[in-house]
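TA notes. Do not distribute before section.
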Amino acid sequence: MKLARKTKGYMMITGSGFLWGSMFFYAQYLLDRGLVSQDFVVWKLFIGFLAMFIYTWIKDRTLLKIDKRGLVFTMFMGLVCHAVYNLFTFLSMEKTSISTAVSLLYTAPMFVMIMSRIFLKEIITSPKIIALIICTIGVFLTVTGGSLRALSFNLSGVTLGLLAGFFYAIMNILSKSLLNQYSQLTILIYTFGFGSLFSLAFSNPLVPFKMEFDPIIWLCIIALGVLPTALSYLLFTTGLTYGVESSKASIIATLEVPVSVLGSYLLFGQEIGGWKIVGIIMVLLSVVLLQKENNPITEVRGLSSQNH
């Protein structure tokens, strides 16, 4: 029995959330070895670009062509949705705390819901609002364990965290809009390429070469670029072409948070329990609510705008 297109889309976006969550495992090893986040951002984006370029070169070289309009949009996305987004996320972490930065970053689904209504004419339904509320509370509990003391309030840090969430949302909206005119492979190749170039302004790609050679460091760097970057974004953008609304996709992608928390417990022995478990269950519940929702109007709209 064949799965419905939208069901496949949900599965792809769920998969992207899991892969984004796995980023923690590779990043944690690199951080423990003395690298700072900014220093491997450029590698993350460059390897993502290289992986997508090689795959597209083998699959269909015509997808490497892009017009001036597409070039401008992907340049903008590379700058704002990748380079600046990563920079603001890391600066927010430095000025506040990881818990605060992650909580602020996941204001993105709120921005996506508002912008998708304005620009994509997606309908805001009661299940979406309920799922968003449950998801937001779930992310907060998962990250902080329910304690406000885990959050650090610094005006510039909070502002940067909110801006990171906003830029994350812009990526979602622009991807959905561009997918009607360009292949997801074309979009990813150019956004990753431009993102890696712009990241050179604040990232030092030579740092790993100055360290004592450790093959696991390079395996983690490569995995970081291929799995939670190239493959995850490919699954996410492909899921959008299968008729999944941007507002729903942004909430489903928050699976990244419980995956990273569970991974930190299983691999690094970091504490988990109590309210964090409740938060994970709430995030999962919000995803289930969205997948259960059946909106005939958006279903038809989504299917009529597929990019085959």
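Switch to the second chain here.
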Amino acid sequence: MTDVLPGAHMRAELISQPEAWARAADLRDGQALLPNRGARVAVVGCGTSWFIAQSYAALRENAGFGETDAFAASEAFVDRGYDAVVALTRSGTTTEVLELVDRIRGRIPTIGVIGDESSPLVSLVDEAVLMPFADEKSVVQTRFATTALALFRASLGEDLASAIADAEAVLAGTDDDGLRDAEQYTFLGRGWTIGLAHEAALKMRESSQSWTESYPSMDYRHGPIAIAAPGRVTWQFGEAPEGLSAQVEATGARFVQHPIDPMADLVRLHRVALDRAVVRGLDPDQPRNLTRSVILDA
């Protein structure tokens, strides 16, 4: 019997992301099931899926497709006249998502974007966009999250060729320039990349038990910048506000901003998180206190 190296599943899944994005971009029938332009939409999920929902909501509304809100499934205010609810979940077994969809069943049209095609959510939603090719074995989610976002971006008319090329270039490289060894990480975003910042912080916490924080870029200077110091990293997804880099560097902290598609930059973070976990003797495929799906006792 061959021993499986720590993080082997996560590594295989993060490496496969560009291919999965391309498949999602070609999933025209699935994209057609998502709410039409002009519909008022709530997008719900838990953990990683909630953060991806935030990114989709910002992208959809800013693209002129209609008012779009994102909620943690446990805290969703869906009785506000929404035309549809999109439920995002890798496993399709998350308790809060199942309870929410069951509660609104027959009253508000629901579309599930689901990784596990055998999950109970498939039969609960009105329409199911199934992406079994993006499902994962690792508890720490990488591929499904970004592939769902690729699906959403393609459904809004975005061409993902540049994002895919950027991700391939990131994965072809081997040097992450010392990012693995920082004492602390703060992740920042603007607009749709705020969700990516929150997701990056969660990934680093889950995989390597690291001290991470995340904020909207413009809010960072309203207090959180106090944590910046030598040996710490402030990582911006997408374009940074004017003057922020200089302010962070004046604290002695390192400011990181890569001029690539932010989704591809999240792939870079995935690799940094994995490498940090492994060098600490941790296995992100089986992180402390976590399981693939949160199923609550009755």
